[in-house]
Amino acid sequence: MKKVLKIIGIILGIIILIPVLFIGYLRITMYAPEGTEPVEYTTGSRSIAAGDALTVLSFNIGYAGYNDGEDFFMDGGKGVMPASRDAVTDNLSGISSIIMDENCDIALLQEVDVDSRRSFHTNELAYLGSSTGKARAFACNYNVSFIPYPIPPIGKVYSGLATFTDITVTDAKRVALPDTAPWYMSMAYLKRCLLVERMPVEGTDRELVIVNQHLEAYTEEEKRDLQTQVLCDLIEEEYQKGNYVIVGGDFNQEFSVNDNPPILSESGWIPGEVSEEDIPKGFSLAVADNAPSCRSLEEPFKDNETSQVYIIDGFIVSDNLEVKLVEVHDYGFKYSDHNPVRLEVRLKP
């Protein structure tokens, strides 16, 4: 009997030890960036001046993992991985074509994988840099050696924000946003951030400051507000210097100034809301409601009326920029769970 109990004790000890060791491994290897860090970047050679018109594209490419037939477990679907490497390649090729067809001066992309199991370790940053021929900067916001959930597990993720342009860039930094995940998830969760680039405005001591961002989706409003506050403090400081400022990306919140699509089911994801009152004086929301910018991944996409869709992608601009146009361009979610948003502005003299 003692021998049997000893064997049972050893088995139980092993069962307990394995997850403890795994948690320790995740803790030791956890990505822990500084509050502000320089990032590697390349620069374009084209200068800009006051009075110039510029076009900016914001596009969450969903790591080229979601065509219009995919779903995802975190939205209530069943999918974990894309169907195949070929599916990722096809999506990435389509995404690249959209970016080139839009032909914008600056492209702000979110969820760009560099080395992740979920995208079959495709280096999407290199692919898009090569296909667009533009200079780039990259800020990592997801760096986990092994994500153990669900079944089968997601595995390794190395992903982040990427900005592409042919304009001269003099500096690029990663600015950390407050963590929102509970402690038991933080070791395998995103470390969200801002990618901030500076572009000199010829003939002046001012700069165009471009902020690429992807705010939190799955957390309480109070924690989201902490991230928004960091963003607002940064852009207000830049505005006080006299700089032009454009923030673009996936806000994971609807915009109060829009006529937003209806929520079809209260059991699904319901985004928060950002309004003009939430951003600093001297700034405005540059958003559009002509088409949805995001779809739910609880099921494959059907159409904009019967599928759950949202408008959560857009821009914040300083008032020394004249907004000429902002539109969501509806590609039917063919290659990503987001549609791109195009902004046209003019730098006021």
Quick synopsis:
This protein is of the alpha+beta class. 23% of the residues lie in helices and 32% in strands. α5 links the parallel β9 (207-214) and β10 (244-250).
Produce the secondary structure layout.
Elements: H1 2-29, E1 36-38, E2 48-49, E3 53-60, H2 85-102, E4 106-113, H3 124-132, E5 135-147, E6 155-165, E7 171-176, H4 183-186, E8 193-202, E9 207-214, H5 221-240, E10 244-250, E11 253-255, E12 272-274, E13 283-286, E14 294-295, E15 309-310, E16 313-318, E17 321-328, E18 341-347
Parallel strand pairs: 2-8, 3-4, 9-10, 11-12
Antiparallel strand pairs: 1-7, 3-18, 4-6, 5-6, 7-8, 8-9, 10-16, 13-16, 14-15, 17-18
Helix pairs in contact: 2-3
